[in-house]
Amino acid sequence: MKIKKILVSQPKPESEKSPYFDIAGKYNVKIDFRPFIKVEPILAKEFRQQHVNIADYNAIVFTSRHGIDHFFRLAEEMRIKIAPELQYFCVSEKIAHYLQKYIDYRKRKVHYGTTNRICDLAPVIQKHKELNYLAVLSADYNDEIPNLMKKVGVKYNIGMMYRTVSNDFGPDEQLDYDMMLFFSPQGINALLKNFPNYEQGDVMIGCLGSNTAAAVRNAGLRLDLEVPSPQFTSITMALDALLKENHKRK
After folding, report:
1. N or C: which end of the chain has fewer CB within 10 A?
2. What pLDDT is recorded for position 115?
């Protein structure tokens, strides 16, 4: 089956330079952006119930841009002054660069992994074992970060600053796509919630992250594209290669 229509379960990129737009033009495919999940804030009153004092930590771990947004939102709501010597540890360079929205990037200590995989952040944290870490996560976080921190052997805590919930589909919304791309287990959960009788058939499914891959397989679905892989570190690179092969077929 020739892929002509793709659903990306994320918001539409703000920049016109997104690789998705290049791919759409290159292969003459239609790419729709429709988030399967949405992020809701955990307000200061609820956050205080976690008994986490942001000022007690000199290192912050971010796994997403959502974490960055809600960390600085809560700090402002709670009138917490962010110390200039605070160090930031991000899963990827892309997430690290997003910090420029809130800090003077060049004057702060920002560290990041070489891939999008959380496990590859371990060597970076290993070099700074003396720090006290706060990992900013969703309320429905998995064990990846706690397991990594325990493995490295550093002092850490979890700060739940937002939650992800299903972004429900309307009665008239259909899933008439040749391929769908997912970026979190919650996206797969939302798919099954909105379409409990969903049958994959010939539709290809791609995903980012090992936990998302596990969610796809646990749901009884076929996974056709998984990133990161030995060949590709980004889902757009993998999608480009897949479409190149797919469009060679008659």
Report:
1. C
2. 75
